[in-house]
Amino acid sequence: MKRFISRRMPDAQAQRQDFETRQCSTQTFNVVHNSPEVAILSVDQKSIIQSTHESKLFDNWTLHLVGIHKMVDGKWSWNGLSKEMGPDGEFIIWEYYGDSASGTTAKPIYGTGKWKGVKGERKSQIITAGKPIVPATAQFCQKQVGWIELPK
């Protein structure tokens, strides 16, 4: 009996896109503990996203984020999840993590519609922040740079 060699067909080319956005947000904090040595708080954030890239990818998307931030001996770290929705109602769930030394990184873990199976990564950096208008809140804008890949 002849033995057949199985050859894997190349995967369909994924569609990769770079993006850059400005995200302006307000956060509300629920403080669990706050001392000079340790702080623990939950974050509830709402945002609007504006594309600053020629592709206009993610322009006029909205965001709802929940997370946990902690400070130990002056060093902050954070993690959480966000749901980011386009004007058409389709959305991507991103998981984020970071710290005061390296900044924030986020990766998509779920998408609906054309975003189903999305992969990617983005980095965020705060570009401006204002004096909190209400106690236990923050208002700021950040620049986000990243890439996504959609299965073909």
Compose a concise summary of this entry:
The protein is 0% helix and 66% strand. It is mainly beta and 152 residues long.
Helix content: under 10%
The helix/strand series, from N terminus to C terminus, equals EEEEEEEE
CATH architecture: Beta Barrel
CATH class, anyone?
A: Mainly Beta
Low-pLDDT runs of 5+ residues are: 1-10
Q: Give the averaged pLDDT, no decimals.
A: 92
Give the total of beta strands. Answer: 8
Given helix and strand content, the structural type is: mainly beta
Largest sheet: 8 strands, antiparallel, barrel
Strand content: over 45%
Number of DSSP helical runs = 0
Span between termini? 38 Å
Overall outline: elongated
- Biggest sheet: strand arrangement: 1-2-3-4-5-6-7-8
CATH superfamily: SO1590-like
Radius of gyration, in Å, reads 19 Å
Tell me the count of domains.
1
CATH level-3 fold name = AOC barrel-like
Which labels suit this protein?
8-stranded antiparallel β-barrel, mainly beta
